[in-house]
Amino acid sequence: MSSRLTVVLVSLLLAAPVLTFFLWLMIQPTTEAIACPEECRCERDGYLVDCSNTRLNNIPSILPAHVRELMLDGNNITFLERDNFVSRGLIELEMISAVFCKIRRMKLGAFNGLTKLTYLSLKGNEISEIIPGVFENMNSLEFLYLGNNSIEHLYSEVFSGLVNLKNLSLEGNNLHYVHPDTFLELPNLQLLYLGYNPYLQIPTYRNFINSHSLTYLDISNCSINSLSVETFENVSALEWLALNDNNLRTVDINILRALPKLSTLYLYGNPLHCDFQLQEVWRWCKNRNIQTAYGKTAPECYTPFEVKGMCWEVLETGQYLGGNILHYEFFNNRILLSPFSARGPIYRPHLCLRRMREADVSAHFFQALQ
Q1: Strand, helix or coil at 42?
Q2: Are 64 and 35 in contact (CB under 8 A)?
Q3: Does pLDDT of 325 surpass 60?
Q4: Cα(70)–Cα(84) distance, rounded to whole angstroms?
Q5: How many angstroms separate the CA atoms of 72 and 191, rounded?
Q6: Pair type for strands 318-321 and 324-331
Q7: Among 109, 147, 169, 230, which is 20 to 30 Å from 275 by CA?
Q8: Cα angle at 147 between 141 and 152, to 5 degrees?
Q9: What is residue 37's predicted lDDT score, i.e. its pLDDT?
Q10: How many CB atoms lie within 10 A of CB 200?
């Protein structure tokens, strides 16, 4: 028994170097795989690589092959060439952020091989054109941010292939024209941001956007001065519509009737004309609990002069007779009827006060008489 034990011990001793060498071979490739470029910072064992603000002119040629999140913000990467990522073996990427990189052009095939990418941010660059097909085969992409570039036109096939896209941001560009079918082939698109495009043409004679899935549309700060029922005729799934900070004087009640799921409508920041037509819109929103105020900011009347600066809730008690608006206020349990004439009403606050307690209203009223 002792001789057999001796043989076993000797065998283990002889095998130890072989076992050590085998383990070294297993560990060595992993060590090399997480080697991080000098310009970058690697975290989570190389699954996140941050190369932001390092004056890069191109994507580093050597990166961990298993990287999932790549940060390239604040560099000088002016072009995205064909096979930019797949040629570096970066086929596991799930997130790319290349914000403020001075990117001017994206060539066809720039995103080849990125079949797992779900998030792509190219905000704050100098992109002026999106070539149709540049996003082909990116079936997994859900979030695409192209805000604050110089894009002027969107044609019908620029986003073809993005069948799982949910969130698309194009705010702060120089958009003039959007083809109505631009988003039609995005069956899962829910949120679309087109705000801060002051030259954007919003048609009143045809559909602006065709989308059966869109629930959230932001076209604020776009210098819009008129809308029609046809404008939103083919986005009946809308629940949230931001029209604030434009040049709208009024809104056709039939637009709201064509949007049965609408729960939020922002109209503040527009020079609204508070008349019987807008009163219909106000009542429609109130009766259906459609949110119109953002925090303490609510729509205000710009005209007529008699109600300028007042919250559009003044329409709640407004009555119209022979084209003249009559305004009711309750003071000390009695009704004060004041026709809005050139001299103005007896009581006219200068701030948009959504609701005031009766005592507060009375105090303002008596101050106005002194």
Answers
A1: strand
A2: yes
A3: no
A4: 13
A5: 25
A6: antiparallel
A7: 230
A8: 105
A9: 86
A10: 21
Side chain identity, residue 39? E
- Our measurement of the distance from residue 162's CA atom to the centroid of its chain's CA atoms, rounded to an integer in Å, reads 17
Are the CB atoms for 139 and 114 separated by under 8 Å?
no
Q: Which stretches of the chain are assigned E, i.e. beta strand?
A: 41-43, 48-50, 69-71, 79-80, 95-97, 105-106, 119-121, 143-145, 153-154, 167-169, 177-178, 191-193, 216-218, 240-242, 264-266, 272-273, 301-303, 318-321, 324-331, 334-339
Residue type, 83: D
Are 132 and 106 in contact by the 8 Å Cβ rule? The answer is: no
Secondary structure (3-state) at 80: strand
Is 75 within 8 Å of 57 (Cβ atoms)? yes
What's the rounded Cα separation, in Å, for the pair 214 and 329? Answer: 41
Confidence (pLDDT) at 261: 97
Query: How many of the other CB atoms lie within 10 Å of CB of 150?
Result: 14
**Rounded-to-integer distance, Cα 265 and Cα 68, Å:** 38
Tokens of 362: 């009375």
Q: Is the pTM of this model over 0.90?
A: no
Written as six digits, the tokens of 95 are 């997130």
Give percent above pLDDT 90 in the chain: 68
Burial class of 280 by CB neighbour count within 10 A (0 to 12, 13 to 18, 19+):
middle
